[in-house]
Amino acid sequence: MTIPTSSIDQVIPGQGAMAQPEAAKPGRAAKRRKFRFISNKKAMTGIVILGIYLLFAIIGPWVAPYDPDARGKQFVAPPSADHWFGTTHLGQDVFSQILVGTRAVMLVGLAAGVIATILAVLIGVTAGYLGGGWDDSLSALSNVFLVIPALPLIIIVTAAVPSGGDTLVALIIGLTSWAWGARILRAQTLSLRRRDYVEASRATGESTWRIIIFEILPNLTAIIASGFVGTVIFAVTSEITLAFIGIGSATSWNWGTILFWAQSQQALAQGAWWWFVPAGLAIAFLGTALSLINFGIDEFVSPRLRSAGKTKIKTTSGRTVRMRVGFTPVLDNSAAPHTHASPIPVIGGKPTPVTRSKEATR
Amino acid sequence: MKFLIQRILFYLFTAWAAITINFFIPRLIPGDPVKSLLARFQGQMSSDAIDSLYVLFGLDKDASIWSQYVDYWKQLFQGDLGLSFTAFPSPVSEVISDALPWTVALVGITTVISFFLGTSLGVLAGWRRGSWIDGLLPATTFLSSVPYFWLGLLAIYLLAGPDSFFPSSGGYGTDVVPYPDWPFISSALQHSLLPALTILISSVSGWILSMRNMMVTVAAEDYITVAHAKGLSDRRVALSYAARNALLPNISGFALSLGFIVGGTLLVEIVFSYPGLGFLLFRAVGAKDYPLMQGIFLVITISVLVANLIADIAYLMLDPRTRKEG
């Protein structure tokens, strides 16, 4: 499980918050590995889509054709050349609302992800490495946070502090969603702490924190990255959910706010699909992009999970063979594909007659 | 047995933690939100009810936190969660017990169906890697990224309508009374189809993916090769050797992700105006009905803990190792 510390770090935006103490030497091997992660089709697609979102988070408010709050003359108008995604009940431009809303969504998602990841690393690695009483109490704490339904908790906390805004929402989501990452990190740290190289640095008298930071953490990079991406997905969905049910930030635009107005102004009954479909698709594509990056990381760490690609292969004689891990395909005379090792069927269903000469039997 | 006792102790601890969180949250509310609410119902509330709200919300600044905490527990054990402001003067416990069966029926049944369906598809996808089911994975990824409630909105827009078979909102038709007879049950079933379908579509993909990944991992184990070498049928190896072992982590995953799922499904209720806990929470949030919000959070948490305990018992029955240790 030696994962190059640099490769994942550089291709995932927002990962900069995770301190990487050991800068990987830009050798040929590192370059090749980096290329391998990007060459993963899923990860690459995800990164490209995420890049587009990040771009719009930065330039969104500048390129938006209208002020998202400005009222127009066309009410609940379908998409047209003037208003690409149509208008709302007040004549506001839905396209501009989505562009402007991207920034809040990305900011809250990334901020919550960073908070949760830092907590997960602190708690998970401490529990896994120190063991004993630390482990018992910290695992109990993370299990409690795992089992308590997060969304209702976030809803009632945010509802209790109504004037919080985006910062508070990010903080609450970050503080409540670290438990899953901590659990996985603890398990991985447990398996790392008895490795030879850790024992060796312990024997040379390195301090506990030095071992954790320089020996353990670099080998957890992939898991930390995948936990971060997972938390961002959860944070984005939770934030939009909060806005959709009308709590959290009421002043700034995000996609949930658009859905909130669409729902409360009976967009469905009016058949105004343009009002809620774009916001939902924006969420779905962002979520898909992040999941794809996560699959890329997973497959990078554990090659077994890769989609097998084309497993049915035609041989030169026109038969199909299904390739499988651990099995050598056996060809027989039937055209049916072989799925597993089975005795080669005997033609005719009878045992092959053995003709022996009289001399041999004697 | 030891395993089970450990788990029960853990759930008791979690319940205690949740109740303690619930005790502190109202004390975070800046200002005196309940004072204004009390003013709204001045003269209509009995002094007992006002006292119980003081205990729940810590408005009684004279008492120490500790004595407030003790009073809070005493009140909980009597089943007193305060009075609901939106459904005044009914107590919160009554309002919640009206909504709870709807949620248990909808969310409980669909979650279990989704788990079984997703797990079986995951077994297929993991066993026959590279078959057409692998082609479904990107689609399921997309579906699981969609928020539940948005899928619900889309379902209403596309499938429900005045002339459609699917009603767009409510838990039962306006022409029936909530009484356990056939017209009511069929109407309730008809109303639950679309929300159930929404939950199913968005939650099934998670199970497919985790089961597929476990199957792929298990399928490369030596004992699977041995089972094949013994000449057992492919089906038997897949189900009794690979799937059985791959199922164990999936069940503990099921228990742990229940909290997430329940959170998501509550939103489906909001979209469909389904008379369950989620819709109730939505209305409570809208009306700033703090006692009701607290009560709903408590009930949801306790239900999730109970469901977790059930999943643990299932795990106990499936994994012989946990039994041996006991």
From TrEMBL, chain A:
Gene Ontology molecular function terms on file: dipeptide transmembrane transporter activity
Cellular location(s): Cell membrane
Highest taxon in the source lineage: Bacteria
Region span, Disordered: 333-362
UniProt keyword annotation of Mitochondrion present: no
Bilayer disposition of the protein: Multi-pass membrane protein
Subcellular location, principal: membrane
ABC transmembrane type-1 domain sequence ranges: 106-294
SUPFAM superfamilies: MetI-like
Segments traversing the membrane: 43-64, 104-129, 141-161, 211-236, 242-261, 273-297
Keywords (A to Z) from UniProt: Cell membrane, Membrane, Transmembrane, Transmembrane helix, Transport
One annotated Gene Ontology cellular component of this protein: plasma membrane
Family of the protein in this entry: Belongs to the binding-protein-dependent transport system permease family.
UniProt cross-references to PANTHER family, sorted A to Z: D,D-DIPEPTIDE TRANSPORT SYSTEM PERMEASE PROTEIN DDPC-RELATED, OLIGOPEPTIDE TRANSPORT SYSTEM PERMEASE PROTEIN APPC
Stated name of the protein: Peptide ABC transporter permease
Organism encoding this protein: Actinoplanes auranticolor
TrEMBL record, chain B:
Subcellular location: Cell membrane; Membrane
One record GO biological process: transmembrane transport
UniProt protein name: Peptide ABC transporter permease
Pfam families according to UniProt: BPD_transp_1
Primary residence: membrane
Domain ABC transmembrane type-1: 100-311
Membrane topology listed for this record: Multi-pass membrane protein
Keyword ATP-binding: no
Family according to the record: Belongs to the binding-protein-dependent transport system permease family.
Domain of life: Bacteria
Keywords assigned by UniProt, alphabetized: Membrane, Transmembrane, Transmembrane helix, Transport
GO cellular component, one term: plasma membrane
Residues passing through the membrane, by range: 9-29, 99-124, 136-160, 188-209, 254-275, 295-318
